[in-house]
Structure formats: structure tokens, C-alpha cells
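Lab meeting notes turned into a lecture example. A postdoc, R.K., suggested we walk through two folding results consecutively so the class can see how the record format repeats. The first protein's sequence and C-alpha cells come next.
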Amino acid sequence: MDKKGSILKKLKSDSKVGIIGGEVTNHLKNTLYLFKILFRSIFRYFEIASRNSWSRLRKISN
């Protein structure tokens, strides 16, 4: 409850623009974090796929 109270006090002391800005930045941070996770998983998938294809090509060439 103490944390919530301090946050509410901060929000009340800030101007409305500050509150909106804070919410937007938090939202952007969250979306960026999600994109990071997505891109990591995609890159991992491609990395594994490329490794597999390379090993297949090597097997074919040998």
C-alpha cells in the first residue's frame, strides 16, 4: 500500500502531461520488450534452421 500511495502522490504532483507521458513511455517500454523477445525467438529459429540446412548441404556434398 505504501508504494501505491507514493505513486499516487507522484502522479498528483506531476502535471497531466507528465502523467500521460509516463504512461506512454511505460507502454513503449513494454512493447519494445515484447518485440525484443519476438525478435530473439525469430533469430534463434533462423539460426537453428540455417545450421540444419548447412549440415544438410555438407552431407549432400560429402
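The second example is placed directly after the first for contrast:
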Amino acid sequence: MNRKGCCIIQLGLAVALLAGTLGSVWAENSLARSWRSGNPVLIAYDSSPNQENLSSPARSAEGEGTGEPLLLSLQDCIQTALKNNLDLAVEAYNPKMSEEEIRKEKGVFDPLFYSELDYAEYKVPTNRGGFYLTLAPGLKIFPDEYENRTWDVGLKQRLLTGTSYDLRFQNSRWYSLLDPSINANFYAFNPSYTSVLSLTLTQPLLKNFGLDVNRAKINIARNNKEISLQQFRGQVFKVVSEVQSAYWDLVAAMESLEVNRRSLKLAQDLLEINKAKVKAGTLAPLEIVAAEAEVAAREEGVIVAENQIRSVEDRLRRILNLPRDSQLWERPIRPAEKPVLAEISFSEEESLKRALELRPEYVQAKKDLTNKDIYARFARNQLFPSLNLQGSAGLNGIGENWHDSFHELRGGDYYSYAVGLVLEVPLGNRSARGEYAKACLDRDKSKATLVNLEQKITLEIREAIRQIQTNRKRIDATEKARILAEKKLEVEQKKLSVGMSTNFEVLRTQRDLLEAETNWIKALLDYTKSLVELERAEGTILERHNITLEEETRG
């Protein structure tokens, strides 16, 4: 096969390859556009909230008295907070923005169509023989006058391998402006039409060579999207944790109010008994003063407990981000759940394993380290000199008109090809060396951050398990103390009824019972909150409440 045939085959293969590449790129862009029509990040639940409660606050507020209590489950509160939280609404846009960053980086490899249209007119000196124009003694110059109209169209693209191509179709119309009698001596036809179809390929051999180097920014953008998803997930963690903390604090405040009310009732009952004894003449009137003082102190305890409930209610309303003009701000919130004492076994090793798989900040740190490693390898490649292999091949045609020019080009009788190497070596290369050194330091810093975070998570897991075990023992101890305090009060009341005890002893025993019941409630609520803390430390808090991110499911 002669060189003309080789050039034709090469151009045919190049055009076919180019068509396949463009088809795959356009198909990928079409799929990407159809996916991007969705919402940024959606939160899905396996169960629906109670429609009579906060999940539909407008309906709950309509037609009901502002003083009617609002009964809420923990799940109602969590779902409402996730739906209304403004920080989450803002954070939800970051994964979408990261997705567009991926598209932007992929766009570097999009094909580029170009077209050029030019007109030029020239009058230039030439040393060809013929008719002369004498400008000065001994100097004779032949002027050449012509116009040139060109139209180029082409397609060029940089591929993931680093290869770039430029497929160009050039057309030109050349017309001499000299006298026709002069043109006849120099040109076969005037005007002349020229067509050139050429393909130029450039392949880096050192700097910018390889898939890893050319895909580096795309891979970094993809990891950044995962980082933004984990940041959103971490924000969801924070909201759910805050809701649970406020909810169980409200439960504790409600229980504390009940304890203080019972204690007040005991003091009031004792006061009535003393009044009856004074009236009967069996008790000195001074004893009533001590009982009345204790009733006043217990009333103060009830007032403080009621205020604590209102404070925690407002804290919960703020976390739920309820509309300020809603009647829900005036309705008392009553938790529908109470802490349940469940025996749970723990494994520090399993908890740590789950945490290193699920904790958002740890996943972020790992992805960040991956990005730093990708960029360090990219920066290392940029240290190499630029050595590019260039090759080109083309078909040429010329004629008295466009048709003749195209015919000559298709015939393949006239062709050109070239191959060469282009070397560029920056002397000193300080910019690339500095960037690589900085990238390596940044990578080492990320490694240290990851190790430090792993140690921190390990300590958090150990502390959470230790707190659960401690609070479980506190429950047993405080429950025993509460039962004994109840029995002791019964004994003192019986002794008082037969004159073997005093008001002072009974009041002191009542205060002991109040303290014992308060300690038991606090231990039970601390145990419940320590379970929540372990869920947070493990990174399982979303799974525990059947919460999934749709973006994670799709990804």
C-alpha cells in the first residue's frame, strides 16, 4: 500500500473514532441532565409522623384552644426539626453544588467546535522575474497583488489520556489582482480554490501523561461531593441529637414537677394534721409554723419546676423552628414517651468499627486524605519536563472552483504528513517544586488529622460506654434509695401518729424522699441520654431513627 492510501485510511479511522467519542460524551451529558432535575438532598423516613401533631403545625393550630397540650412523640419532633431546620436547608445545597463542580471538571474534556472566516488583501514585493518596477538605480522589484478569502471549520478535544486532536477542514479562495496578461505567465488559473482536510494529534509523554493525571481534578471533585454529603449528614446528626436532648430534658422536667407536687402534697397533708392536733389541744401552736414554712418551700420547688418546663419547651420549639406567629408557641408541649430501661450489651470493638465506617467527620477526613494524595501525585507529575509527540496527516485539493477542489481532495493524490517531538524544560522549575512540596506537606497533615480523629473517636466510644455502665448502676442505687426513703417516711408517719416522732423528723424524711426521687429520675434520664451519646459516637443515630439521605441511596 502506498503512502497516499495510508493517509486516507488513517483519516477515516480518526473520523470514526471521533464520532464514537462524541456519541459517548453526549449520551453521558444527557443522562447527567436528567439526573440533575431532582432536589439537592432529601431526607427519607421509614415511618410517617403523627399528622395531628407537629408534622402539620398549621392544622394542629387551627380551631383549638391555645392552652390545650400538644402531645408529641420523639419521632414527631425529629421529623419536624429536620423538615424545618434552616441550617439543613442551607447545607442541602452543597452536595448539588459539588455535583456541578464535577460537571465543570468534566467539561475540560468536552469537544470544541470552531469556525473561522477571513478576508485579506495583499500587495507585497517579490523577487520573481518578469515585469519590473524600478524604485531606485540598481533595485528592481516585482509587486504581487492578490486577495485571499478563507473559511476553516474544525473540531478539537483533549482526551482523558492526555491526547489532544484537531480535525480541521480548510477552504480558501485565492485571486490575483494583477493584470490578466501577467497572471497568465505565473498561474494556471485565477482564481484558485484550495481545500485541505487535516488531523493533528498531540500526545504528552512525560508531563500530563496518563489517565490518573488527567482525571485528577474530576476524582477530587467527586470526593468533594462525598465530603459535602457527609457534612450534610453531620448536620443532620447535630439536629437529631439536639432534639433528643431537649425532648428528654422536657421529660425530666415533667417528672421533676410531679415529684415536687407529690412532695408539696405530703407537706400540706402534714400541715392539716398539725392544725387538727392544735385544735384538739394535743399539739403546740408553734409546730404549725414549721409545717407552714415547709409548705412554702415546697411551693417554691413547684414554681421552679414549672418554669423549667416552660424553658425547655421554648428550647424545643426553637430547635423545631416553629413559626413565631404560630399558636404552637402558646400550647404546652407534652412528651408522649418516657424513658425505657432496657438491658443492652456493648462491645467497644464493634462500636469503634461502626464509628470508623459511619462517623461523618471520619469519612470526610478519609476522603480529604484521598484528595490530598491524588493532588500530590498530580503535582509530582508536573515536575517532569514537557515532552509531546506530535503527528499530523492531511489531504489536499486545488481547482478552478469548489467542486474541482473537493474532487481533488477526495481523490487522495495530494497529501501531507508530519511527525515530531516538542520538548520544553523549565530551568529551575521552582514553581512546580514548591507546589509538590506543599502538596506533600498537606497530605502528611491530613494523615495526622485522621490519626488524631481516630483516637478522639476511640476515646468518645470508651467514655460513652463507661457512662452507660455508670448510669445503669446509678439507676439501681437511686431506685433502692427511693424505695427505702418511701418506707422510712411511712415509718416516721406511723411513729408520729402515736407520738413517737416529731414534725421535724417527718419533714426531714419527706425532703429525703424528694431528693431520692429526684436522683432516681436524673439517673434514668442520664442513662437514656448516654445511650443517645453512644449512638452519636458510633454514627448510628440516623439508622436508629430510620432516617436515610436520598442522595446516599442514589449514589
